[in-house]
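Batch manifest line 210
LIGAND: S-adenosylmethionine
JOB: complex structure
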Amino acid sequence: MRHDTSRENLFPWFRTIDDLTGLIDWSEFYGNSNPVELDVGSGRGLHLVTAGQSNPHINYLGIEIDYKEGRRAAKRLKKREIANTRVLGGDVNRAFNNHFAPHSVDAIHVYFPDPWWKRRHRRRRLFTDLFADRLSRTVKPGGLIHSWTDVKDYFEVIQALMDHHPGFEVLPPPEEREPLHDLDYQTSFERKKRQAGETIFRGLWRRKST
Ligand SMILES: C[S@@+](CC[C@H](N)C(=O)[O-])C[C@H]1O[C@@H](n2cnc3c(N)ncnc32)[C@H](O)[C@@H]1O
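JOB STATUS: finished
ARTIFACT:
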């Protein structure tokens, strides 16, 4: 993992997982009891900025293992003074295991997880049965999991894991819509891939109540 060496103080928009102790109390973390949504592997933060600005009554947390990218996203949030949106630098699996309380968040977004193309690297992929279990344990009953990718075979893996998981039901995915301007995409990767003419696969699942 890369270390956070930059000098600019981005708190509270950016903090690292090493700054946390125990389970996050979301109302303490954000200073309100609004719903919380996670953006796993938030990258440069386009989704965080757009969603945070559009939905001031939802709290967003991006989790990004690459501190440089996480800080870059946090700078954008700080510049726009988006108070309901933060970035956590660290490995999301560590966060799921140690810092996210069971059934404590309203939605989890996983956009364009790294595909790890080479066969010998496939086991580094984020989506596994254990990861689907972590999603199921963390999201509230009725909460949503959104996952999009341009990688067809990875999407098939994600679908197989999520569609057959006892904790989830499949919902119809959102339709593709034409962007109104250059930043009108769900994420930076969606923009890059759509501009390159790639097909985007979109998945949506709801946590069952039992
Ligand atoms: C292909 S990029 C997609 C970024 C963004 N979601 C988008 O759609 O533009 C995948 C991101 O996931 C991050 N990532 C990979 N593994 C992670 C992990 N275990 N915990 C947190 N972030 C992770 C990478 O550093 C990278 O920024």
